[in-house]
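**Reference record**
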Amino acid sequence: MKPISIILIIFLSVLAQKATSQNKSLVLWDEENSQPVESALILHQNQAKESAISNSNGLFELPPSWQSDDSLFVHHVNYETTTFSFSKDLKDTLNIKQQDFMLDEVVVYAEKTVEQFLEDIVANTQAKLKFPVKYDGYYKEFTLENEKYISFADASMQFYLEDKRDDINIDASLLESRAVNLETSEEIDLSLVAPIGFESALAYKDPSKVSSFLNPNNYKNYNYSISDGSPLITIKISPKNPEQDVCKVGKILVEKKDSTISFIQFQYHPLSIKNSKEVNMLVMKAKVLQNKVSIKYRYYEDEIILDYVRMNISMRIYNDKKIDQTNTFINDLSILKPSENQESISWGDRYRKKSIAKNGTDFQTEFWKNASHVSLSPEELELINSDHKDLDAN
């Protein structure tokens, strides 16, 4: 993409957000290649305050509670952790530097090995997760075909999670929803091949299910760099032999006070993408081209709950005839709070479809207001407003 086009998109994105919010909007920029940085976690110096995450244009909003004399920290799996001072560094565009995937720094805590430390942070986090539990949540999904937005859906939902036989059983009810579907070049029901959904996001409540690099059986296949910090410990992960399998690079933020996990982010290693397996799906085939996931946990009273999950997966979908396209699926899940009524979801109220777009549009309230952690891009706003011109979509 040409620099002028990128600047125009960023400018329009900032204008779109300023038109719908009183919060200050900033943009994250890759210092080396002048590209916006998506899915970066932005934390306040006081970790107890709410966080932000950058959208596909690198834009994020500063929460109103953040003050002019504070500092913020930017975390991303591909970039160096960077601190910005509100009073000195805070311009409309913030530049961050890429980091090398080669790791050599290791810190051991209280005479523990790296393996013991990893097992402890997973166990400590699991011990503070409550089951069964029912959440009020907001969920949205976008689909792109050859880089063009073709569908959108979001919903106010409730989720009931129960631990059964070392697995998480998930029931969901859909309360209100919006959906927009544009004409596509091929007659493909993408909901049948979509690799992600709200159930996939909720499964990340248990950190042991997040990625192979947190499985003790796979520790030997990864390098771990552990950096001490206050109040967070940073763990960077890279595979030892990324060219031999489908491997991920990752970053984990750990609360130093109690050794529990605060944030996990991972994606395919660049050298591993070619090892992605081809999957047969009825009349077509599919191959994953990239898989990016961000998971944030937070304390709610004395327990840990999911804060949000953002998933971005690109696939090549093709067959021997005329279908050959790249589809990208972007899903965002925000957990608002534990439900007041903690009873399980009745059989008749359970939502059983994989995609919420199947439910169509049915709402009485502006349930999306202040529900999402991720700001909308101009392209996303245009898609949503194509069917809902009478509503303020953000």
The longest strand covers residues 148-164. Residues 114-363 form one domain.
